[in-house]
Amino acid sequence: MARSHPQHAAPNPNRNIKAVRTVRFWAAPLVITLALMSALCALYLGGILNPTTNLRHFPIAVVNEDAGPGGAQIVDRLATGLDRNKFDIRVLSRDEAKHQLDTGRVYGSLLIPPSFSSKLRDFATSAVSPARPDKPSITVSTNPRAGTLGASIAGQTLNSAMGTANGIAAQRVMAEVTAQTGGTPLPGATQAGLSSPIEIQSVVYNPLPNGTGNGLSAFYYALLLLLAGFTGSIVVSTLVDALLGYVPAEFGPVYRFAEQVRISRFQTLLLKWAMMVLLGLLTSAVYLAIANGLGMPIDLSWELWAYGVFAIAAVGITSSSLLSVLGTAGMLVSMLVFVIFGLPSAGATVPLEATPPLFRWLAEFEPMHQVFLGTRSLLYFGGRGDAGLSQALTMTSAGLVIGLLLGGIVTHLYDRKGFHRIPGAVGFAIAQDHQAQHQARRGKSTQPPDSPVEPETPAEPESPDEPESPSAQT
Question: TM segments (predicted)?
Fold first, then answer.
């Protein structure tokens, strides 16, 4: 191991309570915390308050199987009547629309059947006959598996557009009926039927089963995976550093350092990485057992467990690398990356197409969105790769590689440059000072009142390569 060149600030035993009266002491915690909470509030509220106002390229499928002019006219009105910047109207075949519904690429669809124009024409010609004519129908389907709020927006938009189309069709039908009757007034019931010649059928495409929290189970399960990696990395880093003797362990009033282990920064990080992998194996299994016990439907148990292990390990390894590279600041950076920026851009509770542009940009690389896509695919879409699982695996792998390279290269560089934690660590010096004070107090309490006080003998300086452990002084 290369010789150390400590870059630590030595403790000042003469510093007293006056240190808390400085501006820096009060400003640093308050300003940093206030900045984080302000970002949290602005991002969270800014992403959910106005989903309809923030709509951009919201995907909706339209299937026109009608051979007559009626269906084409409705499609044209739909395309021209809706804002092209807000809505992405995709005119597809029935099979293409089904594929996009099955992969969560559209939030709803509109189906115009083959007999629409002929039924609309027959309805107008037979309106004055005693027989009750059949109304032409149009089916509006919503896709809650792609997102509950997204399905709601799609349903409202299509039903509203079809209401307008129904009114236009009613005017044409009334004109044809008036021409047939020569302007003779029609009974009220007949007029009421002619005012709404198209029957709008609203259905839910492939409804979610019970136990999915109305489509929120995928989001919360993904959130649990991310928190296991992020929070787990903080707990693991803290405990590993304490057990290796580099940070104190406090248990109530007890404040102690473990005996320091001579280990490099890179080796310490390898230990933390290994623990995060083990934590992923165990935590994913526990999550799966609890979810099954609570009645959450899971068709691909082994696949969900394996993906959970991968997601927890990837997030935990990357977060551990940030903590090892940046120290305390790494925890703040991890919080920004995984939580503060991650949750609003997940695209789970609010569709990304209904959020401000910032969140759509963040979702391209934010871990939370990738974990959500993978979890949603496994829970709602049968683990299909084109339903988000392939993207989730690719992006999570990329994040894992970045975390491994960042932590491995930088900590190895720290070791080569001599930025070791021993000797000269501040915590080691503080532990020595605390233990010396403790022994001095014990000596005074056990010394007889009349016995002379012996002068202290200066301690021999410690070797820079072999520091005496704090436990040896006790």
Answer: 25-49, 218-249, 270-292, 304-325, 332-352, 392-414
Which of 422, 424, 84 shows the shortest CA–CA distance to 264?
422
Kindly state whether residue 324 falls inside one of the protein's structural domains.
yes
pLDDT, position 369: 96
Phi-psi region of 460 (alpha: psi -120 to 50; beta: other; left: phi over 0): beta
Which range of residues forms the domain containing residue 247?
17-29+36-47+213-416
Helical packing angle, 69-81 and 116-125, nearest 10°: 110
Question: What is the sign, positive or negative, of the torsion defined by CA atoms of 316, 322, 323, 329?
Answer: negative
Total structural domains within the chain: 2
**pLDDT attached to residue 281:** 98
State which residues of the chain have pLDDT below 50: 1-4, 6, 188-189, 423-426, 451-474
| Integer CA distances (angstroms), 456 to 304, 430, 435, 446, in order | 65, 20, 16, 16
Q: How far is residue 263's CA from residue 252's CA, in Å, rounded to a whole number?
A: 28
Give pTM, 2 decimals: 0.83
On whether both 185 and 223 belong to a single domain, the answer is no
Do the domain assignments include residue 384?
A: yes
Can you give the pLDDT at residue 253?
A: 80
CB contact at 8 A, 234 and 330: no
The reply to whether 193 and 336 lie within a common domain is: no
